[in-house]
Amino acid sequence: MKKILITGATGQIGSELTPVLRAKYGNQNVIAAGHRREPDAELTESGPFCSLDVRVAPAVEAVVAKHGIDTIFHLASLLSAVAEQKPQHAWDINVNGLINVLETARTRNCSVFFPSSIGAFGPLTPADDTPQDTIQHPTTMYGITKVCGELLCGYYQKHFGVDTRGVRYPGLISYRTPPGGGTTDYAVEIFYAALKNRHYDCFLKADTRLDMMYMPDAIDAAIRLMEFDGKRLIHRNGYNVTAMSVSPADIAREIKKRLPDFTVGYRIDPVRQGIAESWPRHMDDSVARNEWGWKPQFDLPAMVEDMIRHLSSRLTAP
Length: 318
Fold this sequence. Notes:
Order of helices and strands: EHEHEHEHHEEEHEEEHEEHEEHEHEHH
Oligomer: single chain
CATH architecture of the largest domain: 3-Layer(aba) Sandwich
CATH class of the largest domain: Alpha Beta
Number of helices: 12
Structural class: alpha/beta
């Protein structure tokens, strides 16, 4: 990777991936691109930033050509709960946007990282120790677009030789970016509520167990995969990666160890509860571990400790 474009750079993953890649590859060699969401000062002052709507193919082509891009981290996407409210909009961004990126990668000889998700599975998928290769019948528009994305990346790799790579992320937890419409957003909201109000009303049931990952591990997975020798990869797209399988009650219990007066209530959102119940409780990520050395650094206690420390500082800063 010499010249890198990050689409969706103002989003949950992009806002944290961008500074890490700039520190590693040089500020001027990592171009952050966003659309609609206002970028923060750190993003625009530390390196190049441009406005980019990935649904506009000529715009994608122009940015890649202008900056001599050789690697694209394509993160622009509508998340699960929002996608259910706006299914056609989700298809337009998540699928048509990806096709535009893949077409540009084909003509400009770029590598592409595409993040899939546990949402790419469905109620017919084995919920425990979900295999790398298994049935994928999602019942949400978000999940459908992610399966489609995995297949499109595989198609462009097989037929056109585009170097596509990707992982299936679990729910992601971050202290930097506020929740953005995902089914696992409770795992971020709960920390804000705990520190601000000492109470949180969760929209999922207490025992709803899902795979989760702390953002530093998610960033490490993306970079590690893209830096790995492509000749040694077998699956290339849609690698299962995970760090912990937890429920709202598990996270609340861990928070209470540090904030004893914290309490949790449950006001179930039937839409997001239904989405969560269609997803795996725990993925088997042994293929990623064996093929390219994937290994998370944060378990639940370490993640909770780090979240509270960083978020406390951010919330009390002037």
